[in-house]
Specification:
Layout lengths: L17 E5 L2 E11 L2 E10 L9 H4 E5 L4 E2 L3 E8 L2 E8 L8 E9 L2 E9 L16 E2 L1
Antiparallel strand pairs: 1-2, 2-3, 3-7, 4-5, 4-8, 6-7, 8-9, 9-10
């Protein structure tokens, strides 16, 4: 697998990149520092098996809180790459103030119906409502 270098940023202890592989595509999500109330994530997708250009990030990514409410992105910014390697920053409106956990869903990429990445909004460590924050899963 090729390593794709993107601008480095400081990560908090609970903002370590999460990786889910499937269908020949590696998807990496990293929570970035918030801007105001907006949540920001960097998404990286890499493959050597298919063209990633047809995937519209604003259509395939959703934010879900523990109530099941799903939110589309406010913006997809800083889009870089093409073909086999893509990267962007995705901004979401703030989740419900009562939300303690959020999941980012990446849907229908390379035959994988749903990739789920989970973050505890209250800090590092296992969430009280599901698997540890560092355990992304694929459905």
């Amino acid at each position: 697998m090729a390593i794709v270098a993107f601008p480095a940023g400081g990560f908090a202890e609970d903002d370590v990149p999460q990786v889910v592989r499937g269908g020949g595509v590696v998807v990496i999500l990293t929570r970035l520092p918030s801007e105001g109330d907006a949540l920001r994530f960097r998404i990286e997708m890499t493959t050597h098996m298919r063209d990633l250009d047809p995937y519209r990030l604003e259509q395939i990514i959703r934010l879900r809180d523990q109530t099941g409410k799903e939110i589309g992105p406010l913006a997809v910014e800083q889009i870089m790459g093409g073909g086999h390697h893509r990267m962007a920053v995705v901004r979401f409106p703030p989740p419900d103030p009562r939300a303690t956990v959020v999941e980012l869903l990446v849907r229908d990429v390379a035959g994988v119906p749903e990739r789920v990445f989970r973050w505890d909004l209250q800090g590092p460590g296992p969430s009280k409502t599901g698997p540890p924050v560092w355990e992304p899963r694929m459905r």
